[in-house]
Amino acid sequence: MAHIIVLGNEKGGSGKSTTAMHVATALARLGHVVGGLDLDLRQRSFARYMENRKATIAARGLDVAAPELMELPEIDAGTLAEGENILDKRLSAAVADLEGRCDFIVIDCPGSHTRLSQVAHSLADTLITPLNDSFVDFDLLARIDSETYEIKAPSVYSEMVWHARQLRSRAGLTPMDWIVVRNRLPTQQMHNKRKVGRALETLSSRIGFRVAPGFSERVIFRELFPTGMTLLDLQELGVDRLNISNLAARQELRDLMRALNLPGVSVDF
Question: How many domains does the chain have?
Fold first, then answer.
């Protein structure tokens, strides 16, 4: 069975699709067969990133690994059982198609609460929640006291993850490994950065996730999207010498992949 990695965050702008593409491509470059699903049927950022990669590989004749993009298949509503949801059916059909030939399936969810996102979370062996390093985005996980910064209660999203975990448990599936990834970290040890870090550590033991380092804010990510390439493909793009920022970004990706601790993955890039 393929290991399913879900990227989930109900707020946009957290670098979710960029993280999904870098995780999927890193796994493909490490020799694993990777399928990709984009459940944001409107914006399709992850899907377009994969399509851009396929186009660049073909146009330049590159010999580089790539995740396989899978679209949700169309389903004849007349074939549905009574009470069966057509979105559930489309997602389960896509996952079933990929499971037989993939080591990993990377699913990017929309930045909003949808039926597809809710079902995908219950499928996640590994759930990655990218989070901008601020209390604005921390609110996705929990509500805090404005004076003391003490955690008052989990958020609606955290409760949704808890529900997904309960569904997995009742189905006899392995427990979900939930990882909150701190993206767009400031380069300096700012006071707010330390506060967010302490709040995340406190909340992690309370609702059950791990904290991992993500990506700093870098121009290179915006430049890579049109080509579909990632930090691991710069040599194929003709970049012979990496500047300090690119080297640091590659190290961030290396640190993230090691923190995910995915089964059968040896991070040696």
Answer: 1
In tens, the pLDDT along 131-156 reads 987 788 888 898 887 777 788 888 99
Measuring CA to CA, how many Å separate 81 from each of 44, 76, 87, 186? 29, 11, 13, 51
Strands (E), 89-168: 104-108, 126-132, 142-144, 151-154
pLDDT tens-digit profile of 228-249?
999 999 988 888 677 888 899 9
d(CA 212, CA 256): 7
| Nearest alpha carbon to residue 214 among 249, 264, 245 | 249
User: Which tokens hold the place of 53?
Assistant: 């990669």
Q: Is residue 266 part of a domain?
A: no
Range(s) of the domain holding residue 53: 3-260
